[in-house]
Structure formats: C-alpha cells, structure tokens
Amino acid sequence: MNDRFNKLRQYNTSGLGCWVSLILMVFLLTSVGLGWVINGFLILLGLLFITPVLAFWGFQWWLKRKLIQDQCPVCNYEFTGFKNTEFNCPSCGEALQVEAEHFSRMTPPGTIDVDAIEVSVRSIDEGD
Ligand SMILES: [Zn+2]
What we know:
By secondary structure, this protein is α+β, with helices and mostly antiparallel strands. 55% of the residues lie in helices and 17% in strands. The chain is elongated and about 100 Å long.
C-alpha cells in the first residue's frame, strides 16, 4: 500500500518534471530563435484538429450533392435516396428513380396510371 503510494508520487513528480522541461525547452528554443519550430508544431497540431472537421464538412457537402430528399409519388412517404440510382420505396416497395431532383416511378413506357376510386355499395344502390 505504502509502496504503491510512493510509486504514484514518483510518477506524478516525473510527470511534472516532464512539463517543466518542456516549458523550459520552449523558452530556450524561442530565445535561441527557433520559434518557428514551435510555430510549426502548433500549426501541425492545428491541422490535426482542423483536418477531421474539414473532412466531415466535405463529406456532408458531398452527401448533400449526392443525396436527394423527396416524397414517394405513390404513397407520399418522405425519404432520402442517392442520385443516379434506382431504388425501392421503403414504405410501399415501388421501384423509383431520381428525375429532375424528384422521385419518379420506374413504370415501363406505355403504362397507364389508374387511380382506384372507392365506390360504396350504398351509392350504387341509390343510383338504381
Ligand atoms: Zn412509396
């Protein structure tokens, strides 16, 4: 227990010594005229932080260019799809493609869309 505590204290003091020597080195380098070394190091550090942020932004920008959000022309379910690809609506399974920034059905040419109209039995009876 006591031994462990001593080791911990030793570690702490060595860590402090490391920082002190680092600060001393920075002072030494700047006084000698090697400030550019530190500047370069700081720039490198900055780049290390900035690069992932820029990459993230770039990826988002790329996604915005590639992705398109629209409603399914069949069931009006809103979802996102990739441009220049053919896909199925996740809600109704209709085969869709992107045409002029909008989803459109991939119906073969010549297909006529027919809207089913619900006719209640009563209205037919009344008509007779
Ligand atoms: Zn749909």
